[in-house]
């Protein structure tokens, strides 16, 4: 309903949100899960991180939004940023408690409220706009935050002191973890900009619509990664540290499962494309296949990087991911310089180096395996 131009505006702004939220939740959420969240200094630092994270996410979203959105839409996008940080903070408490079904109930409520606002907007006289989508997201995130505050035990979000604690208390762990986790969404955001520079809004919309067909598979992979992180962290605390073989098996299972979902998306690409675009613009099937490959590679490396996180090797993962991103973006830039119509190759370029990264991670993890 937004058309190619509106969808491109939404995709660029939403990509910025995803990048900022990924940095935040990796700093805040993984610290909450791996470190002792009831340690007073850690707890105070997490409170400060939440406030700082909300402010920085809003600023980053507005900084990109001013180039593609109206002033009202920029304001709505910043509200989304703040409410999203609040909800993500609550979500990660559920994750730290390994209460995934309770988390699913919370997420479902947020989804229902978001969709309800979209339906009301679609039925209104003005119809759906980019601003309405941001308003829907803000409403859903706010509703999910409110119900989480009610459903979580008070000791999980109560802070007795607001002074004390420093970012250095968690930075040695969370800093590299956040940087490492932010590589992939940053690569996606920068690739959108390269595609937009080469082919304009229509190209951005076409590549994003192709990626949207694989979004369910990517969501499964991300959700599994969160579950694996909590499982590995709990095993460490229980004196049963996971080994590289455990991560390799998880990678194989996750890649196969995501591969089946990706195959389904490819088989149904025709009707799904019409559903996503409303026949308003074309989606290149080569891009759909590229995103399927990207998702499988992403899934295969996720448990390995998660195990590295629990062993506090985030600096190594960051270096490997940074090299992978640099090669992918350089390849994409070179290709579109040679042929501007080759923007569909973005997911292939972003997949370059993924298998090599997985092999290098596995080799490093094997060397640091604990004794049986």
Describe this entry's structure for a reader:
The protein has 372 residues and is mainly α. It has 2 domains: 1-175, no CATH class; 182-372, no CATH class. 82% of the residues lie in helices and 0% in strands. Helix 4 (100-123) runs antiparallel to helix 5 and helix 13 packs antiparallel against helix 15 (354-367). The radius of gyration is 20 Å and the shape is globular. The model has no long low-confidence stretch (mean pLDDT 86). This is O-antigen/teichoic acid export membrane protein.
In short:
The chain crosses the membrane at residues 7-29, 49-82, 103-124, 130-150, 186-207, 213-235, 247-268, 288-308, 320-338, 344-365. This is O-antigen/teichoic acid export membrane protein. This protein is mainly α.
Task: Provide key terms for this protein.
2 domains, 372 residues
Can you lay out the helices and strands and say which pair or pack?
Layout: H1 3-34, H2 40-65, H3 71-96, H4 100-123, H5 130-151, H6 154-157, H7 168-181, H8 183-213, H9 215-237, H10 244-267, H11 269-277, H12 285-310, H13 314-338, H14 346-351, H15 354-367
Helix pairs in contact: 1-2, 1-3, 1-7, 1-8, 2-3, 3-5, 4-5, 7-13, 8-11, 8-12, 8-13, 9-10, 9-12, 10-12, 12-15, 13-15
The largest pleated sheet is described as: none
Strand content: under 5%
Q: So how many helices?
A: 15
Which quaternary structure do these chains form? single chain
Number of strands: 0
The N- and C-terminal alpha carbons lie at a distance of 57 Å
Domain count? 2
Coarse morphology: globular
H/E element sequence: HHHHHHHHHHHHHHH
Mean pLDDT: 86
